[in-house]
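User: I'm new to structure prediction. If I give you an amino acid sequence, what do you actually give back? Let's try with this one:
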Amino acid sequence: MTRTERLLKLLQVLRTYRYPVSGKRLSERLNVSLRTLYRDISTLQEQGAEIEGEAGVGYTLKPGFFLPPLMFSQTEIEALLLGMQWVSQYGDKPLTKAAGDALSKITHILPRSIKKEMNTFSLRVGPPMEETSAQEDLTYLREAIRKQRKICINYQSQDGICTKEIIWPFTIGYFTSSRILVGWCEKKSEYGHFNTLGITAMQELDETYHRSRDSLFKEWQKLELLKLGKDSDKEGITL
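Assistant: Good question. You get back a string of structure tokens that encode the predicted 3D arrangement of the chain. For your 239 residues, that looks like this:
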């Protein structure tokens, strides 16, 4: 766990206590020494966190505290809530859980006046996709993309055609009815689109691809826009 993650976790733990909690209890929950805990509390106080208390007495975090980067306007909060709702409906299983956890953290520190209005927002996300897609876990694909690793996949198209491809994955498109992996296909020397439900097997290779994810994405996006321009009736994929 990085220091930044530890500081954020300390704030989250403090928010769960209505009354002062001892430094010993906090250090046990965070699995750090008392010395580290006191230093972290001091750091957060210097950054503006309204943490009250002292060693031997206990600590509390005043309600309504916002970290400086989490100061949002009403419209920004609505955008965040809508985005979190969308991911919780249409993300794969780990992202769905993460969206719920993140939404809980955000709503916990919202001002009371905004919390009251949350259930009256006119921005809503439609019903979730079919259960089989909702249970997908694309962690392995996101990890390969993050590390820029080549992957070998067995793929079955909607026409029932089975192929084996070595691709350079660089983005996943999350749509309401499907999720599409986009990557450079070594055998075909072109970009390919793969419905994640059609990937029957995948192996992450030890070899990284030499181009950056950003350059691949930008080149692919330009090609997709050109295709759309040439045939306005043809449906393309825009991410």
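You can read the tokens as a compact description of the fold. Here is one thing that stands out. The chain has nine helices and seven strands.
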